[in-house]
Specification:
Strand order of the largest sheet: 1-2
Oligomer: single chain
Number of helices: 1
Largest sheet: 2 strands, antiparallel
Strand content: 25-35%
Structural class: mainly beta
Distance between the termini: 6 Å
Number of strands: 4
Length: about 80
């Protein structure tokens, strides 16, 4: 799904001192005349953790908590082409 986005980026704090932790902003996307929160994860550190482009993830959630897990490739085929939807 294509969308036109307006990103409002805050400061991102990342250092090797925070092994296993990243502090990222919750940004804003403008879609369908409304503003929605969005969290963008990107970088080599994801690849080092096994999150390859085209992989699928599972997100568990509860108030103030997100848990992201990689779905094993035998359970979910990779996304066709270079993008996922």
């Amino acid at each position: 799904m294509a969308c036109r986005a307006v990103w409002n980026w805050g400061e991102i704090y990342m250092s090797n001192d925070n092994l296993g932790k990243r502090s990222l902003p919750v940004c804003t996307i403008h879609q369908d005349g409304k503003y929605w929160p969005v969290i963008r994860l990107q970088g080599r550190w994801l690849q080092r953790l096994g999150f390859e482009a085209g992989s699928r993830i599972e997100v568990e959630y509860s108030p103030r908590l997100l848990l992201i897990r990689l779905v094993p490739s035998e359970q979910s085929p990779r996304c066709p082409g270079s993008g996922c939807s």
